[in-house]
Write a structure and sequence with these properties.
By secondary structure, this protein is an alpha+beta fold. Helix content is 40%, strand content 21%. It contains 13 helices and twelve strands. It has helices at 8-16, 28-42, 68-95, 101-107, 112-122, 161-178, 192-205, 211-218, 231-240, 308-311, 334-340, 366-376, 386-407, and strands at residues 99-100, 137-141, 144-148, 242-250, 255-269, 272-279, 284-289, 293-302, 326-333, 346-352, 356-363, 381-384. The strands form three sheets. It has a five-stranded antiparallel sheet, with helices on one face. A four-stranded antiparallel sheet has the order 10-11-9-12. Helix 3 packs parallel to helix 11. The model is unreliable at 51-74 and 180-187 (pLDDT under 50).
Length: 408
């Protein structure tokens, strides 16, 4: 594989993360950079325990439970979730004036307090000069909500034919992808507004008979990667309550295995499609990312889904440590502490002398963690467990041996 590289240091970290599955053949300076990084990792000494230090060397730890890095990552995720909820909340309230706060809380799986805060935020949404006519108007009368859009929403959207054709074709492809499309099923109820908008756009764009259908046939749009191909089968399995057999790659354990799953729900979050349900192999509720599914078959076995409310709530996307997980302690540069908080379930974060930070967390995903530590390089010190430090150094030596054999 030939790749254009702009950030050489970033490329070195990236290729080392593949472990023994990738080596750099050329150019020579890049090979030397990879070898140098691996040698530094393999020769790193395990650090000894030392007293933590606050900003002024006072020896005080900062936020021993709930580190700033983890808090920042959690805040970012909450903000994104709130934005997604508000973008769904507004059109629903406009289409259903007088809907109760209780119904909105149930439908959007949020508390009354959070919902009221969302509605209060809408009062501040609008365009300059932020006059009453420029802001969204929210009315709450005896726990019943109505939303009146600002005046500028009444202005018809003006787009050219050149802009409208790509919009139509892409939206049409999205509808086709999201529909179940088998056994005469009608697809998702949520698609009805999009279908209605497409029909109106088609009538204005290509009023002649057959014009729109011909356009959709002649122009094909590829929307997603491999995960999109599993959506029709999974939606069929959810609807018909059928168990699926999947071949699944677990990134955290670096293992490809076969699972039997009762899928309760298919949903999209943070740019990926997931299914959550009961995994027979571990006898528990699990979530699977569809781009890591290598094969999928809908079986003839059926299942009874759980309580409806439970089925509609996907499990948390954050990793939750289990009681058997082992504690890991790392020392990293201060600049790396925040970014690692987005990948690791950090339980404590302590500032050290010399611009470094000590992170502590629990995990069982050691194959995944080993790859991450290889990418981060020798700047990360592994305090505990000793077995993890040894395995990372051994992994670096194994990769180095591939470069030595190639040199011979």
């Amino acid at each position: 594989v030939r790749l254009p590289v702009v950030d050489e240091d970033g490329f070195v970290s990236w290729v080392i993360g593949f472990g023994e599955d990738a080596i750099v053949r050329s150019p020579d300076r890049m090979r030397k950079a990879v070898v140098g990084r691996l040698e530094a990792i393999s020769e790193a000494k395990r650090p000894r325990r030392r007293a933590p230090s606050g900003p002024s060397g006072s020896g005080k730890a900062t936020k021993p439970a709930g580190a700033a890095s983890r808090a920042a990552a959690a805040d970012s995720r909450r903000s994104l979730g709130r934005l997604e909820r508000i973008l769904l909340l507004v059109p629903f309230c406009v289409s259903n004036p007088g809907v109760s706060i209780e119904e909105l809380s149930r439908r959007f799986s949020t508390s009354r307090k959070e919902l009221v805060e969302d509605l209060e935020l809408l009062f501040l949404c609008g365009l300059p000069e932020y006059t009453p006519a420029d802001l969204i108007e929210v009315s709450v009368d005896e726990d019943h909500v109505s939303i009146r859009m600002a005046d500028y929403f009444a202005k018809p959207l003006r787009i050219t034919r050149t802009e409208a054709i790509p919009l139509y074709v892409r939206a049409h492809a999205l509808v086709e992808m999201l529909q179940i499309g088998r056994n005469g099923s009608e697809g998702l109820q949520e698609l009805a507004p999009l279908k209605s908008a497409l029909d109106k756009l088609a009538a204005a764009l290509l009023p002649q008979d057959g014009g729109v259908a011909d356009l959709a046939e002649r122009i094909k749009v590829h929307l997603e990667s491999s995960e999109a191909r599993w959506l029709p089968l999974l939606r069929e399995a959810v609807t018909q309550r059928r168990t699926v057999a999947i071949e699944y790659y677990s990134y955290s354990r670096d293992v490809l295995s076969t699972r039997r799953v009762d899928p309760y729900l298919v949903f999209s979050s943070y740019g990926h499609w997931y299914t959550s349900g009961w995994c027979h192999d571990v006898s528990g509720r699990r979530m699977f990312r569809l781009d890591r599914v290598k094969s999928l078959e809908v079986t003839q076995d059926t299942f009874e889904p759980p309580d409806e409310a439970d089925a509609q709530l996907p499990p948390p996307l954050l990793y939750v440590p289990g009681p058997e997980d082992e504690r890991v302690t790392l020392r990293v540069p201060e600049s790396a502490g925040v970014s690692l908080g987005e990948y690791l379930p950090v339980e404590s974060s302590t500032q050290l002398r010399g611009g470094r930070r000590e992170l502590s967390f629990r995990t069982s995903a050691f194959p995944w963690l080993e790859k991450l530590l290889l990418r981060l390089g020798p700047d990360v010190e592994i305090v505990e467990p000793a077995a993890l430090a040894a395995s990372v150094k051994e992994a670096a030596r194994r990769i180095l041996s591939l470069y030595e054999r190639k040199k011979r």
